[in-house]
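In response to reviewer comment 3 from the previous cycle, which asked for concrete evidence that the modeling workflow produces usable outputs, we include below a single protein chain processed end to end. The sequence was submitted unchanged, and the resulting C-alpha coordinates are shown without manual editing.
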Amino acid sequence: MSTVGSTPRRQSGASYYKHAARDLAPDVWVTAVCPGGTLTPTLTEHIDDEWHEEDASRVPLGRLGRIEDQANGVLVLTAELCAYVTGTVLEIDGGGPPTEGRG
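The workflow returned the following C-alpha coordinates.
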Protein backbone atom coordinates (compact mmCIF):
# COMPACT_ATOMS: atom_id res chain seq x y z
CA MET A 1 0.00 0.00 0.00
CA SER A 2 1.57 3.27 -1.09
CA THR A 3 0.97 6.61 0.58
CA VAL A 4 3.69 8.52 -1.25
CA GLY A 5 1.33 10.92 -3.06
CA SER A 6 -1.03 11.53 -0.17
CA THR A 7 1.46 12.38 2.56
CA PRO A 8 3.05 15.42 0.83
CA ARG A 9 -0.41 16.72 -0.08
CA ARG A 10 -1.51 16.50 3.55
CA GLN A 11 1.67 18.20 4.71
CA SER A 12 1.27 21.04 2.23
CA GLY A 13 -2.38 21.40 3.27
CA ALA A 14 -1.36 21.57 6.92
CA SER A 15 1.16 24.28 6.07
CA TYR A 16 -1.55 26.23 4.23
CA TYR A 17 -3.84 26.21 7.26
CA LYS A 18 -1.01 27.21 9.60
CA HIS A 19 -0.20 30.21 7.40
CA ALA A 20 -3.87 31.15 7.04
CA ALA A 21 -4.25 31.06 10.82
CA ARG A 22 -1.29 33.39 11.23
CA ASP A 23 -2.72 35.80 8.65
CA LEU A 24 -6.28 35.82 10.04
CA ALA A 25 -5.76 35.61 13.80
CA PRO A 26 -7.08 36.74 16.18
CA ASP A 27 -10.35 37.42 14.37
CA VAL A 28 -10.70 34.08 12.59
CA TRP A 29 -9.86 30.54 13.67
CA VAL A 30 -8.68 28.28 10.86
CA THR A 31 -9.10 24.55 11.20
CA ALA A 32 -9.41 21.79 8.62
CA VAL A 33 -10.98 18.37 8.97
CA CYS A 34 -9.64 15.41 7.00
CA PRO A 35 -12.12 12.56 7.22
CA GLY A 36 -11.07 8.99 6.64
CA GLY A 37 -13.25 6.39 4.98
CA THR A 38 -16.81 7.04 6.09
CA LEU A 39 -19.86 4.83 5.70
CA THR A 40 -22.49 7.06 4.16
CA PRO A 41 -25.91 5.75 3.11
CA THR A 42 -24.91 5.95 -0.55
CA LEU A 43 -21.63 4.11 0.02
CA THR A 44 -23.37 1.41 2.04
CA GLU A 45 -25.77 0.79 -0.85
CA HIS A 46 -22.93 0.28 -3.32
CA ILE A 47 -20.33 -1.80 -1.49
CA ASP A 48 -20.30 -5.47 -0.68
CA ASP A 49 -19.12 -7.13 2.54
CA GLU A 50 -15.73 -8.03 1.06
CA TRP A 51 -15.01 -4.41 0.10
CA HIS A 52 -16.09 -3.20 3.52
CA GLU A 53 -13.98 -5.75 5.38
CA GLU A 54 -10.92 -5.00 3.24
CA ASP A 55 -11.11 -1.26 3.88
CA ALA A 56 -11.94 -1.67 7.57
CA SER A 57 -8.92 -3.97 8.01
CA ARG A 58 -6.61 -1.05 7.11
CA VAL A 59 -7.88 1.06 10.00
CA PRO A 60 -6.36 0.44 13.45
CA LEU A 61 -9.79 0.85 15.08
CA GLY A 62 -11.05 -1.95 12.81
CA ARG A 63 -13.93 -0.15 11.16
CA LEU A 64 -14.76 2.64 8.77
CA GLY A 65 -16.04 5.87 10.22
CA ARG A 66 -19.66 6.81 10.63
CA ILE A 67 -21.17 10.16 9.75
CA GLU A 68 -21.55 10.75 13.48
CA ASP A 69 -17.79 10.31 13.97
CA GLN A 70 -17.12 13.14 11.53
CA ALA A 71 -19.83 15.35 13.03
CA ASN A 72 -18.52 14.79 16.57
CA GLY A 73 -15.03 15.85 15.53
CA VAL A 74 -16.36 19.08 14.08
CA LEU A 75 -18.51 19.61 17.17
CA VAL A 76 -15.43 19.34 19.39
CA LEU A 77 -13.80 22.13 17.38
CA THR A 78 -16.75 24.42 18.05
CA ALA A 79 -16.49 24.02 21.83
CA GLU A 80 -15.12 26.81 23.98
CA LEU A 81 -12.51 24.32 25.15
CA CYS A 82 -10.92 24.66 21.70
CA ALA A 83 -10.72 28.45 21.77
CA TYR A 84 -6.93 28.25 21.50
CA VAL A 85 -6.94 25.77 18.58
CA THR A 86 -6.18 27.28 15.18
CA GLY A 87 -4.00 26.49 12.20
CA THR A 88 -4.39 22.77 12.59
CA VAL A 89 -5.79 19.77 10.76
CA LEU A 90 -7.99 17.27 12.58
CA GLU A 91 -7.76 13.84 11.01
CA ILE A 92 -10.87 11.83 11.83
CA ASP A 93 -9.75 8.56 10.36
CA GLY A 94 -9.56 5.94 13.12
CA GLY A 95 -5.78 6.07 12.87
CA GLY A 96 -5.95 4.77 9.32
CA PRO A 97 -3.60 5.42 6.44
CA PRO A 98 -3.91 8.59 4.37
CA THR A 99 -6.74 8.28 1.88
CA GLU A 100 -5.66 6.72 -1.37
CA GLY A 101 -7.38 5.33 -4.41
CA ARG A 102 -8.39 1.73 -4.58
CA GLY A 103 -6.11 -0.08 -6.91
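The two ends are 9 Å apart (CA to CA). We consider this sufficient to address the reviewer's concern, and the full set will be provided in the supplementary archive.
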